[in-house]
Description:
mainly alpha
Amino acid sequence: MRKVLMLIAVILGTSVMVNAQVAPAKSVPAKEVTTPKQAKTKAEKKEAKAEKKAAKKQAKAAKKQAKADAAKTKK
């Protein structure tokens, strides 16, 4: 009797494993949560533009100075 029960368990277990799904089911990818952008005020935009302009002007002046220094060292 014990051998018969073991045989049934083995057959059922094998049957379950054979019919088991090989590849996992496709899961729906989670949506990315985005935070809402905060609108900049006109004053902030103006300030950012002024800072950008100043940085550009400073870079241009530094480049000009480097060029002048290079010319001095050549002489």
